[in-house]
Write a structure and sequence with these properties.
Elements: E1 2-6, H1 9-26, E2 31-34, H2 41-52, E3 62-65, E4 67-69, H3 80-92, E5 99-100, H4 109-122, E6 128-131, E7 153-156, H5 159-168, E8 178-181, H6 184-188, E9 192-197, H7 203-211, E10 229-234
Parallel strand pairs: 1-10, 2-3, 2-6, 3-5, 6-9, 9-10
Antiparallel strand pairs: 4-8, 7-8
Helix pairs in contact: 1-2, 2-3
């Protein structure tokens, strides 16, 4: 595990973008699994800026996402697909043919999960999986107690997760009770995981990771099994998912 501690959100964004740039330099058509929420916003802004300056290119990369709310269409502005469209896909005019996002409105969610896993296998798996961290230790939508041998699946979101997401949305939205998510086994199969940590409410989850003991009550501790893990931690207080 490589840990980088930074003092500002901009420094986190720059350090994370450096990891992405290094990956694309080695393999321009890398398969990237991307998160949503407040934490990666600076990263996406930095990637867009570097791309416009000609310092990197995501045109050959393949884009997947980590999770999605069950029942939301990709056109719903609250969906994670719409989030990535706003902050990365549209600003960089990335080709739809190189993007595969979870379909929250799939008629048969379990079939969508199987198709998603098949799509990942067809491109050789994830090269770089970028993760945020939930206050209860979840990664993607893998809540405490999740099976560590799971692949993409339907998950019931905890009350804590739904409450946090509702607050971030202004408190007026009823967050869906279920989501679709890459499973922990899918994440651990990535050749490189990049974990971004920001927010004092994540202190216990962070401590569990750094303790180095695998604990199913804290899904983030599963990352001890990864072949390559980089953690970028914002040391100063920040409000983020």
């Amino acid at each position: 595990m490589r840990i980088l501690k930074v003092d500002t959100p901009q420094a986190l964004a720059v350090a994370a973008a450096d990891v992405v740039a290094d990956q694309l330099r080695v393999k321009p058509d890398s398969v990237l699994a991307l998160p949503t929420g407040n934490t990666p916003l600076g990263l996406y802004a930095e990637l867009v800026q570097r791309s416009r300056l000609g310092r990197l290119s995501l045109t050959e990369a393949r884009i997947f996402n980590l999770d999605e709310y069950l029942g939301l269409e990709s056109s719903d502005p609250r969906s994670y697909a719409a989030f990535l469209e706003r902050h990365l896909i549209q600003p960089l005019a990335l080709a739809p043919s190189r993007i595969r996002l979870l379909r929250g409105d799939a008629v048969e969610p379990e079939a969508e999960c199987r198709d998603y896993d098949a799509a990942l296998r067809s491109v050789g798996g994830i090269d770089l999986c970028i993760l945020g961290l939930g206050g209860n230790g979840h990664i993607a939508f893998n809540e405490p107690g999740s099976a560590w041998d799971s692949h993409t699946h339907v998950v019931r979101l905890t009350a804590a997760t739904r409450s946090r997401h509702a607050a971030e949305a202004g408190g007026e939205w009823v967050v869906p009770s279920h989501g679709l998510t890459l499973g922990i086994a899918s994440i651990l199969a990535a050749r490189h995981c990049l974990l971004l940590i920001a927010g004092e409410h994540k202190a216990l989850a962070r401590a569990a990771l750094y303790a180095g003991t695998e604990d199913r009550a804290w899904p983030v501790t599963s990352l001890a099994r990864t072949s390559q893990l980089t953690v970028i931690e914002l040391s100063s207080p920040a409000s983020s998912r």
